[in-house]
Amino acid sequence: MKHSFSILLLVILGVTCVFLTSCKKKSAGSEGGSASGATPSGIQKKLVIGTCAEFPPFEFFGADGSVQGIDIDLMSAIAKKLNMELVIENMDFNQIIGKVVDGTLDVGAAGITVNEERMKIVDFSTGYYSGCQVMIVPNHSEIKGKDDLRGKVVSVQSGATGESLAKELQLDIVSFPRASDAVLAVLHNNADVAIMDDEPAKRFQTKNSIRIKILPEKLTVEVYGLAVNKKNARLLDDLNRCLDEMTKNGELDAIFGKWMHN
Q1: Based on the domain organization, do 142 and 203 belong to the same domain?
Q2: Whole-angstrom Cα distance, residue 10 to residue 4?
Q3: Distance, CA of 51 to CA of 240 (rounded, Å)
Q4: Which residues contact 173 (CB under 8 A, 6 or more apart)?
Q5: Total count of domains within the chain
Q6: Are residues 138 and 217 located together in one domain of the fold?
Q7: pLDDT confidence of residue 8
Q8: Is the pLDDT of residue 23 over 50?
Q9: 140 with 201, same domain?
Q10: pTM over 0.85
Q11: Does a structural domain hold residue 193?
Q12: Do 97 and 79 fall into the same domain?
């Protein structure tokens, strides 16, 4: 009986050693490296991005109902380079940063301006576009520039740079979930002026050129970046590496050329 117990003990010890060695190898394989690639089962990892498809030409719904635009093509190219499956989550703009912080999203890709307030809670990739804030007013408006905004109703997109700027200037503001709604407020005489990013403003104005115009004064100059959780330094490095590669090989210019002239 004692002899049998000794044999059993040796078998248990042997199995335990094999198990621990296997676990150690798996652990070592998961450390370092890139956020890219496939899982051990061969299934691609998912790259979940948050966007707000009311911001042309960076993101908007195409005729087929799919989300399209500069940020979508950019993230599709990056996902391909990282061998990851791109998953697009459309939501209100003011939800994106929070969902990056809580880990629901891997990346915020929505024409997001890099600023000190946002940098306190998320990290940003290197900038990939330089834009500015402009004012949209009715064609008959007496507003000529920033100095005429006092006492006027200013429409903005909630959570966007235009809203922050209007608050900084202590203006009378009304906020909307989407930039298009801020423009509609001006069109329907519910606001005197809309403040927003220049490229979307151009798209909205082109569709309504008989009724609204963009004032020449630029209120800010800013840079767009991809927002990432501060704990995900590996993914941030991958994004920056891809952006650098796409800048050097002309891919980034090609994406902007495709959508800026559509």
Answers
A1: yes
A2: 10
A3: 19
A4: 153, 154, 155, 156, 163, 166, 167
A5: 2
A6: yes
A7: 36
A8: no
A9: yes
A10: no
A11: yes
A12: yes
38 inside domain: no
Q: CA angle, corner 93, sides to 35 and 171, nearest 5? A: 135
What CATH number has the domain bearing residue 174?
Answer: 3.40.190.10
Q: Could you tell me the residue range of the domain that residue 151 belongs to? A: 132-221
Query: Residue 72: which of 61, 64, 63, 82 has the closest Cα?
Result: 61
Give the pLDDT confidence score for residue 15 in this predicted structure.
37
Query: What confidence tens digit (pLDDT) does each residue in 31-64 have?
Result: 333 456 655 555 679 999 999 999 999 999 999 9
Neighbours of 147 (CB within 10 A): 8
Peptide bond into 216 cis (omega under 30): no
Q: How far apart are CA 69 and CA 87, in angstroms?
A: 15
- DSSP secondary structure of the chain: -HHHHHHHHHHHHHHHHHHHHHHHHHHHHHSSS-S-SB-TTSPBEEEEEEE-SEETTTEEE-TTS-EESHHHHHHHHHHHHTTEEEEEEE--HHHHHHHHHTTS-SEE-SSPBP-HHHHTTEEE----EEEEEEEEEETT----SGGG-TTSEEEEETTSHHHHHHHHTT-EEEEESSHHHHHHHHHTTS-SEEEEEHHHHHHHHHHTTTTEEE-S---EEEEE--EEETT-HHHHHHHHHHHHHHHHHTHHHHHHHHHHT-
Tokens describing residue 36: 């890219």
